[in-house]
Amino acid sequence: MPAHEHDDIIEAAVRFLLEEDRCVTISFSPGGAAIRFPTTRKLAEYLGIPHYYVLPRFGAMERDGLIRRAERVGISTTSAGTKRLLAIMVERYQDSAEEVFGAGIFAALQGGANGDERD
């Protein structure tokens, strides 16, 4: 699938996290940062669609290496998914993202997702 094929569902997750939940959970590891996605049910409810419409989209995103799903843990982005999610935040929701993260943290996340080294 093309890289931006999943932007609509990623953007819906961004809107939910920044504007509805106003909370973003991030995990850091040597492999990069992972951002926790809303649950299938929460995202479907937010979009006003049945949750079973979201499931195949998440399956496709997982197959394309943008998210990983773990039972009882939830859905989180891979390094590629984090990079795309942050790009959408920068392109369309920068003010909201800076309000939730703080400008410095948001800038550091962007740099980290792009592989920039910071001293």
Main features:
single chain; 119 residues; alpha+beta; Arc Repressor Mutant, subunit A; two-stranded antiparallel sheet; 6 helices; 4 strands; 58% helix; 13% strand; globular
At CATH level 3, the topology is Arc Repressor Mutant, subunit A
Percent of residues in helices comes to 55-70%
Q: In percent terms, what proportion of residues is strand? A: 5-15%
Low-confidence stretches: none
| Biggest β-sheet description | 2 strands, antiparallel
The helix tally amounts to: 6
CATH superfamily: Winged helix-like DNA-binding domain superfamily/Winged helix DNA-binding domain
Radius of gyration: 14 Å
Structural class by sheet pairing and helices: alpha+beta
Strand order of the largest sheet: 1-2
Instruction: Report the order of strands and helices.
Output: HEEHHEEHHH
Q: What is the number of E strands?
A: 4
Question: What is the overall silhouette?
Answer: globular
Rounded mean pLDDT is 91
Which CATH architecture? Orthogonal Bundle
Integer tally of domains = 1
CATH class: Mainly Alpha
